[in-house]
Every structure is written in C-alpha cells, then in structure tokens.
Amino acid sequence: MSQPTPTPTAPPAKRGLVTRFLDGVERVGNRLPDPAVLFLILMLATWALSALLANVSFGEIDPRSGEPVQIVNLLSGGSLTAFMATMVKTFVNFAPLGVVLVAMLGLGVAEHTGFINAALRAMLAVTPRMLLTPAVIAVGILSHIAVDAGYVLVIPLGAVIFYAAGRHPLAGIAAAFAGVSGGFSATFFVPSSLDPLLAGLTQEAARLLDPAIEINPLNNWFFTTASTFLIVAVGWFLTDRVIEPRLKNTPVDGDTSQMPTMEPLAPHERRGLVAALIAGGIAVGLFALSLLPEGTPWAAPAEGLAPGTNPLLAFTAPLMQSIVALIFIFFLIPGVVYGYVSGTVKTHRDIIAGMSTAMAGMGYYIVMAFFAAQFIYAFGQSNLGVLMAIKGANGLQALGLPMALTVVGIVLLSGMVNLVVGSASAKWALIGAIMVPMLMQLGVSPDLTQAAYRVGDSSTNIITPLLPYFPLIVVFCQRYVKSAGVGTLLALMLPFSVTLLVVWSAFLIGFWALGIPLGVGSTYTYAPAG
What is the pLDDT of residue 4? Predict the structure, then answer.
C-alpha cells in the first residue's frame, strides 16, 4: 500500500496564541514579493542608502584598514560600471550555486534510479517512528564536518524521510534545517573546519591587544559538543509539539508521483539495494584508505597550520575543499549500480536523464541565486554591514554590563548582525576584531567571546533570508506545498530561533557558572597586562 498524502482528517482545532502568531508571520512573509524580486528590491534599497550616506563622516574605525568607515556610493559612475562589469563573475562565483548544482547531479541520479527511495524505505522499516526527529537533527549537526553539504543533502532528505513515514514533509525540512543551520556551531564530537577557522580569526583579533597570546583551534570543542545534545532535545520538542501540529491542516499538494512511498521492497529492489550498498561501501573503503598514509595528498600542508589542527580537517585541506565532489561521486556510484541491478536503468542515457531532471528542478533556484548574488555583492561593497556591526559592538561596550549580561549581549549582537551579514567567518572577521580585544580589556577571555558569538550566529541563521541557501530551502518546501514561500519558512523556523537564543545562551552561562571548560586550553577570564 502506498503511504497516503497527509491531509486534514478532522475539523480544525482552536489555534493557540503562538500558532496564530506564526500564521500571521507566514501570511505577511508570503505577501512579500517573490524572493528573486525581493533580493532585487533590497539591492536597489542598498544602492539608495549608500548614496545617502556616502558623504556622512562616521567615527567608527574599520578593523580591516584602521581607517574610519566610509560608505561607498553604489550609484556613482565608477560603482555602476564596476557592477555591470562583474555581474556575470558575481553570479558564477556565488559559492552556493556550484555547491548545489554539482551535488544535485549525483543526488539526481540516485533519486532517478530509485536508490534513495529504496534506501529510505529499508531504513524506515527498522527505525522507530518516534526517533525520526532526533535522528534527522543529529545527522544535520554531524553534516557540519562536510562544510555546507547538509544544506543540499540533509535538508531535502529530511522532507523525504518524514513524508515516507507518513509525517508532514515540511516538519522534516524544519527539523533538518534546525540541525544543519540552527546548530551550525555544534559539533557531534568530530571538529569541523569552522573550529580552526574561527579560532584563527580570534587569535588575530586577540593579538591586537596581546601579541603573544595563543588560541587553541579546539577552544570551544567541549561546549559545542555538549551543545549537540541540547539542540537535538530542543529541536525534537519543537518539531513534534509545535511545528508538526501547526502543519496538520496544511495540505501536501506537490507532485505525488515524485514522492517516496512505503511499499515493502520488491525482490529486484532488494537486489539492487544490496549491490548499491556494497559498491558504495567499497568506494568509501578505498577512499578511507587513501586518507591513512602520512603525507596523504588529502591533507593540508603542515606549514602555517595552528598547533593541534588536524591537517585533514583544516579549512584549506583538499579533503575539505572536495566535499561537494565527494557527495557527487558517493551518490553517483550506488545510484548507477542500483539502477543497472534493479533494472531501472537500461543504458547510459538513463543516467544522463536523471542528471537532466535534477537540473530542471533547479531552474527556479538558479534565478533566485542570480539576484541573491547581486544583492550580497552590493551590500558588501557598500560597507553598510561593516558600519552596523561596529556600531553594535561599540554600543555593547558603552553599556558596561556585568559579565553574564555581557555574554548575553554578545549573543544578541551576533544574532542581529547575522541578519545582515551571512558568512560566519566574514562576520567574525569584522566584529571579532572589535569585540575580542574590547572584552579582553573588560576581563572576558577570547574563548568565551568566541563561544557567545557562535551561539548568536547559529541561532539566527535559520531566519535570515540573506543566508545564501535560504532560497534553496524555499524551493525544497515548494516541492511539497506549492504555495510555500519565504513567510512559510520563516514561520517554520522562528520558534527554533527564539528558543535557541534563550536556551543556548542559558546553557553557555551555565557552563561559565559551573566552571566547565569550554574546550582545549580555554579560559573564561583574561587578565590585562599591567
């Protein structure tokens, strides 16, 4: 029997205050222009604001240059011609574009041949329904070791897993998104490339005040590992008790022929799945062997790495730079093997058809990515984000709050800046150069400042349309609910964002109050020299 599409089966129950508020967020958000047009409007607004502020003198110092922040007039002749000259380059070099398209080629083959469908049905046959939510969130957090792979891999699979289990697919997207992005700074025991990257920026900022200070790349590892269990618990509760009940009356009206079903595996499917898993296992095994030799070409050169950094997990390591290509290969191989063994593939043309189908489904995302890339480029060139970040940090310093409240202030400031500056490393490079030495003078260690930043940055990742992958996730929602838009996704994720800001901040304060180390070689306080 096919799993029926979730549809309303009972009269709508009385909706509580929180549900009505989220419904309002969704309605308002979905009345906004199409995301592509919204990015265009934001870009034009950035141009206009940059022209108005270009001649205003600001006292804030840009940490990158040591000079006062100067807003660049994007409506000047030079800026407009530079914009036109770089438009194609800006689009082609938009980082999420290549990541999404290359990964989707391999995923498209695995989906087209039926491998993903069969694998999920086999997994769901032995996985208790009640554990699906925490499993999806945990996998989303674990995906951080693969840089941005979770956005193109775990989030769509969250929807597929929930739908195949008879649950609402948008709840699966919300759970996966909460793990991948809301828990972006959590680590499931295995450090991610973000750890040494942020620690390196923290060290550079701290050395503005103390040239001899050393920051361990794993200075937040204990805290981020413990945070995984907190995020899974929070996400599990919100998905099952808040998000999914609210979605009960939201019909799934996508193309049901493209959605997974829960029939038992037929003999030819079982043969294909076994062969595909064996082929995939051999590929993974051979790849793992290539990582073992000392001096493996997958590792980053030891020169220039911070002490204690695993050369395989360094941001510059070929392994970390090849994650998307590896996703492509590790889905292509079992997908092809499954197709030939199960009989869903007859010739190589069927493989190419699977890739073509996947690319056809990405048409809307490509359009949105074009406008998103142009807006993000314009916003970065204008220096408006830099000005907002510096003003926020200076305002926090002026308040002179106690240490616990200062930590919460860092969290909130980071969360607000995250709404206008998307990249975690770029944002920390900007505000960290101000906040780290500023708070060191107040007795707050760089390790604690960095941990507070990571909490705020992760908590609001899931509600900022400036997240480069936000348009893609809207597209994932529309596969199941055609009317889904930016407002739908915001309403789904707002409970996660607000709850994580509160609970995760309290968790960090608890770590500090109990004196639990944040990570390797970390401290909570800093004693200024003299």
Answer: 47
Burial of 451 (0-12, 13-18, 19+ CB in 10 A): buried
DSSP letter (8 states) at residue 61: B
Measured N-to-C along each axis, helices 149-164 and 169-177 cross at an angle, to the nearest 10 degrees, of 150
Integer Cα distance of 126 and 65 in angstroms: 57
* Angle at 294 (CA atoms; ends 289, 296), nearest 5 degrees: 60
CA distance 369 to 403: 41
Six token digits for residue 30: 């979905």
- The pLDDT value recorded for residue 9 is 46
Closest CA to 204 of 417, 430, 390: 430
Query: Is the separation of the CB atoms in 172 and 159 below 8 Å?
Result: yes
Please tell me which residue, 393 or 443, carries the higher pLDDT value. Answer: 443
- Give the three-class secondary structure for 214: coil
Q: Within 10 A of 230 (CB to CB), how many other CB atoms are there?
A: 16
Q: CB neighbours (10 Å) of residue 286? A: 9
Structure-model confidence comparison of residues 71 and 108, the more confident one = 71
Q: Please, which residues bridge with residue 444 across strands?
A: 525
SS3 call for 68: strand
- State residue 187 phi and psi, 5-degree precision: -130, 135
Question: Is 336 in contact with 113 (CB distance < 8 Å)?
Answer: yes
Other Cβ atoms less than 10 A from the Cβ of 420: the count is: 14
Sign of CA dihedral 252, 258, 259, 262: positive
* Total-model pTM: 0.69
What pLDDT score does 20 carry?
Answer: 76
From the CB of residue 243, how many other CB atoms can be counted at a distance below 10 Å?
26
Closest CA to 92 of 366, 390, 422, 479: 366
Cβ proximity of 353 and 111 under 8 Å:
no
Q: How far is it, in rounded angstroms, from Cα 88 to Cα 83?
A: 9
For 407-449, what is each residue's pLDDT tens digit?
888 898 888 877 766 566 667 776 777 778 778 877 789 999 9
DSSP 401-467: --HHHHHHHHHHHHHHHHTT---HHHHHHHHHHHHHHHHHTTTB-HHHHHHHHHHHHHHHHTT-TTS
The pair of three-digit structure tokens given for residue 369, joined into one six-digit string: 């990515």
Q: How is residue 242 annotated by DSSP?
A: I
pLDDT at position 68 is 87
Q: Rounded to whole angstroms, how far apart are CA atoms 141 and 192?
A: 10
